[in-house]
Amino acid sequence: MLKNFKKFALKGNVLDLAIAVIIGGAFGKIVTSLVNDIIMPILGMIVGKIDFSYLYINLSNVKYQTLAKAQAAGAATINYGIFINNIINFIIIAFSIFIIINQFERLRKKEDVVIISTKKCKYCCTDISIQATRCPYCTSELSN
Predict the structure, then answer these.
(1) DSSP label at 53?
(2) Helices in 54-135 by DSSP H: which ranges?
């Protein structure tokens, strides 16, 4: 069983996946920082100097000045500001992945261009030059 696990763990696909997970985690931290430290303060200033991460609905009967105080007291809250931050995070990550995949697809299409140089004779089904007007095998005349 240990030998099979070693074979599995050392396959190229598993190592590629592990590297992708690590890079994805780092990318997620960068996007989170971009949203929390750059985009949300700018967006907050545009809509009236609001910090979205502090927006919440208090579900308890006790009033709290901040979300942190409500959470420290164990009050039930709906943290819709944090939810807004997470939606923006998701949109940025999804858009970044879309751009990366789109570029890979564009590059792959360039590589996948196949130049057709042969066709099949409709009489003997042999591959012949695309420019041929007569099959060299069965001598039938071909229409272009």
Answers:
(1) G
(2) 67-72, 80-111
**What one-character DSSP code corresponds to residue 115?**
-
> Which domains, from first to last, does the chain contain?
2-113 (1.10.1200.120), 115-144 (no CATH)
Q: What CA–CA distances, in Å, run from 72 to 42, 64, 120?
A: 28, 10, 77
Do 94 and 108 form a contact (C-beta atoms < 8 A)? no
CA 65 to chain CA mean position, Å: 39
Of the candidates 41, 31, 26, the one whose C-alpha atom is nearest the C-alpha of residue 93 is 31
Q: How confident is the model over 51-109, as pLDDT tens digits?
A: 777 889 999 989 998 889 999 999 999 999 889 888 887 888 788 778 888 887 887 77
pTM over 0.85: no
Q: What is the largest CA-CA distance in the chain?
A: 96
Task: Decide if 124 contacts 132 (C-beta within 8 A).
Answer: no
Whether residue 135 contacts residue 128, with contact meaning beta carbons closer than 8 Å, is answered with yes
Structure tokens at 55: 């927006």
Q: Counting every residue, how long is the chain? A: 144
